Amino acid sequence: MSLATAVSPDVAERSCLGLDIYVPGRWDAPDSGVQLRPVLAWIHGGGFLRGATSQPLYRTAGEVAAQTGCVVVCIQYRLGIFGFFAAEELRNEAIANGTGYGNYGLLDQIAAIEWIQSNCLAFGGDPERITLFGESAGAASIHYLLLYCPTLPIRRAILQSGTSLRRPNSCSNNHDLYAHLLTVAPHPEKPPLDRFRAMSAGDLLRSVHDYEPNQGGPLAALKWGPTVDKDVPNGLIRVNPMQALGVGVVNRRVDAIIVGDTEDEGRSFTAQESMAGQLTEGFRFGTGAAAEGAKRAGCRVYMYRFAGTIENPRFAGSGAFHGVDIPYTFLHLIHLTPSEQDLARDLVRRWGDFAARGVPGEAWEEWNVARRVWKFEPGRSRLVEAEEVASAAVHAGGAVLGALGALGAGGVRGFMQNGAAGAPIGRGGLLEAIRSRNGVGAGAGWARGGRVGGHWGMR
């Protein structure tokens, strides 16, 4: 459910949780002797505020399944205030109850992945070959899961234009919004948290929209996202993401990742050339740092730059803007030229090869070894030297990871400027901190599934 959409009375409060499953060819029973298929699980983007697997953009997921031979699963999770709201009173309650707070959308994703692993045999999927792929906030979500969920049952990951390296959400970010919601909440005689919970989903959506009338703008969604809940015993995000990069990937099941971005990331957010350049540099910094962190963790790493384009009526000549790769990823071919259609098929084929065997097709070398990047470009995709496609922001990832290794995670406290960083901890200390909640299994110690303590995730 998205805060950016109008409230529809025929949409139930719990309809934001679900899986869309696409099986290539015939639905084979697990005992039929047919070889199990790799699973590609998609987490959509939208700034943790917008997006839905029901959008027309994803209706061609069945074609992706047919072309790759993979089972394709699209995951819907809670968004905006339903998925990523962290207020001080919720924090205090979580501390008292020993539960996490502010990361309900991530918990939905964890529950979905665990369900896929437990049930994919029934539709021909291989529970040992689950690959997550996602774009923007979806890719960032995957990066969070790689950093903080040591035993989540995933084998590989594809991060398209997103990492966890953005300033985390916090209770202070939502203080004024929470105060505003209490001015319109019913039952003024009751305690604030009870009044807050008495609001219907529709009332919440309308109240948030009234408070933030510009929330439909391109940068508005950047305020939403996961919260560092290290101050509760069973919190999910135990340390700041910048600190977590000192380990890179805590899940030792993960053997390979693909990470990349588009050539003109910032242009879809602003028409101002200078700001577009700064946003693009920010995306690329995260890409390089995530790749370096995964390499340090022993994963095979493949990097790419996407240079395909599509007609953008809002910004003429916007190039390979943020999100332009999604129609290619889901084989929306109708508006593409023949060479662009070939590029889409090549990208999807490589994602399928990666899910099946951990190698994204021929000629694409590991970034760990060659420091070369695969450039997706209509008519001339190829492996290129990193310097040909990457600015200094990409290479900065290695420098930051080097600093983490030399100085300890506390050495970059000031970088994120959110006050969440604790005392300096080394690599072993970080792993211990992440695993210190009750049990090390994904989901251990926190609520899971559609009801995270309440009817829409706040109780």
Automatic annotation (TrEMBL):
Its EC number is 3.1.1.-. The keyword Hydrolase applies. Residues 15-272 form the Carboxylesterase type B domain. PROSITE patterns: CARBOXYLESTERASE_B_1 (PS00122). One of its GO terms (molecular function) is hydrolase activity. Belongs to the type-B carboxylesterase/lipase family. PANTHER family: CARBOXYLIC ESTER HYDROLASE. This is Carboxylic ester hydrolase. It comes from Gonapodya prolifera (strain JEL478). The lineage of its organism: Eukaryota, Fungi, Fungi incertae sedis, Chytridiomycota, Chytridiomycota incertae sedis.
